[in-house]
Amino acid sequence: MSVASEQHGEAPVAGAESTTRRPALSPSRASDFKQCPLLYRLRVVDQIPETPSRVMVRGTVVHAVLERLFQLPAPQRVPAAAAALVEPAWQDLIEAEPALAAMFDGDPAELTRWLASARELLAGYFELEDPRLLAPQACELRVEAQIVPDGGDEPVLLRGYIDRLDVARTGEIRIVDYKTGAAPREVGEARALFQMKFYAVVLWRTRGVVPRQLRLIYLFDRQLLTYAPDETELIRFERTLAAIWAAIMRAARTGDFRPNRSRMCDYCDFRPLCPEFGGTPPPYPGWPTSGAAAPDPGRETALDRAD
Ligand code: SF4
User: Fold this and answer.
1) CA angle 28, 33, 36 (to 5 degrees)
2) CA-nearest residue, atom 5 of ligand 1
3) Residue 44 half-sphere exposure toward CB, CA atoms < 13 A
4) 181 & 124 share domain
5) Whose CA is nearest to atom 2 of ligand 1?
6) Is 259 within the bounds of a domain?
7) Distance separating alpha carbons of residues 305 and 112, to the nearest angstrom
8) pTM of the prediction?
9) 94 C-alpha to ligand 1 centroid (Å)
């Protein structure tokens, strides 16, 4: 490892991140490539706009509320306070990304229902944890670490945003991630664990400590999933990440981004362009390596993470 950094603050909303940042692998984009190389290409290289669903945007609002909840003094972290933060979080989001307001154009009753459903998710959170008893070290923590693969391959920069980081007095680390989507857990669970192991590798390389626990909080079905990684597993996982990066770089050179049909196609905006569904993707535009058009292969926004 030769680079590691951490930075607090909200993840950028869609479209708000600089394109000049050093390319890195993020959990969302690594999962995309693993799931379907063509999906990755159309999203990252072609940068074809996608329509965020109401569920994704609601997830972004709920994540923002939970971050702000932990900025309040501990005794004030009660359900009513979380409910009161929903509307301001939505207003801030549409100020940063005005196009999102169009989701409810002409349908104020639907907006009211949608905001109520965000409050309902937050009410579920309080059944799983009592935030008055927690003292997170950080929320929305941006982390980076560089890993050096075996065999002299290029170093790989890993980058991600951790929803919440709890550190015990003993130094033990717990990584916490909130899941707000309504998709069946079995569909997203492998992806969620991949994401958590990704963060575990970055923190291990940044701080020299293997996180004690990875905690996934499923707000929709009000359940917790916990997992304890070990060092051997993280070493193996690091190799997996390096192999994914190498595969992305190979595909970038050759343009060979194959479709991979799966249950996740149900959630893919690119079906009309996908050969698996009778479509034709646009010609491969190549992989610009410099300038404003250069894709960041790990670009990740708050909307990406609000699943
Ligand atoms: S529809 Fe399925 S196979 Fe086609 S690009 Fe999307 S995820 Fe890949």
Assistant:
1) 120
2) 39
3) 32
4) no
5) 265
6) no
7) 24
8) 0.87
9) 29
pLDDT of residue 190: 82
CA torsion sign for 10, 14, 20, 21 is positive
pLDDT at 7 over 90: no
Distance CA 297, CA 23 (A): 6
Helix, strand, coil % in the chain, rounded to nearest 5: 50, 15, 35
pLDDT, tens only, 146-170:
998 777 677 899 999 999 999 999 9
CA of 269 to the centre of ligand 1 (A): 8
How far is it, in rounded angstroms, from Cα 246 to Cα 244? 5
Cβ-Cβ contacts under 8 Å for 127 (sequence gap 6 or more) = 222
Ligand 1 neighbours by CB, cut-off 6 Å = 36, 38-39, 259-261, 264-265, 268, 270-271, 274, 276-277
If one residue of 271, 273, 280, 284 were mutated to test the ligand 1 pocket, choosing by the most ligand atoms within 8 A of its CB, it would be 271
**Is residue 217 domain-shared with residue 143, that is, in the same domain?**
yes
Q: How far is the CA of 68 from the centre of ligand 1 (A)?
A: 36
> Which range of residues forms the domain containing residue 173?
4-50+136-252+296-305
